[in-house]
Specification:
Elements: E1 2-3, H1 6-18, E2 22-30, E3 37-51, E4 57-78, E5 84-94, H2 108-126
Antiparallel strand pairs: 1-4, 2-3, 3-4, 4-5
Length: 137
């Protein structure tokens, strides 16, 4: 993951300092129960940060858990360096196995299989030399 905007660099550094996950999310359309938009994603644990020559960061993350994203807000924080920054935050809850993500994108199991196939395909593109073992799917 590459982070280049100064405000994003600050947010990622703060999350690493506090041991917080970052969220990667998307909207699935409408929740069948409430007819409201449902945002889901993955909590990403920050494993390593590496400074780039341009002042950005190369961030190594590991997917931790599936989450449902809720209310969004911004908070003021001070980094260990003393610099103050605003950070976007989102309320997150664990997404239970078998959760209904709404009618817009099919059944839960087929969406997960489709997502897994897309992610594995992208990983294979990154490691075309066959280092990725797909037998453990």
């Amino acid at each position: 993951l590459q982070v280049v905007r100064a405000e994003d660099v600050n947010a990622v550094r703060l999350c690493k300092e506090l041991g917080m996950c970052i969220a990667s999310g998307c909207s699935t359309g409408e929740d069948s129960a409430s007819a409201a938009q449902l945002d889901v994603g993955t909590a990403l644990s920050i494993e390593r940060l590496k400074e780039t020559a341009s002042g950005g960061l190369e961030v190594t993350v590991v997917g931790a858990v599936a989450i449902e994203l809720g209310q969004k807000s911004a908070v003021m924080r001070r980094l260990e360096s003393g610099e103050a920054c605003m950070v976007n935050v989102v309320r997150a809850a664990l997404l239970e196995d078998g959760a209904d993500l709404g009618p817009a994108s099919g059944t839960h199991a087929s969406r997960l299989a489709s997502l897994r196939d897309r992610v594995l395909g992208l990983l294979v593109e990154l490691k075309p030399d066959g280092q990725l073992d797909r037998s453990e799917e």
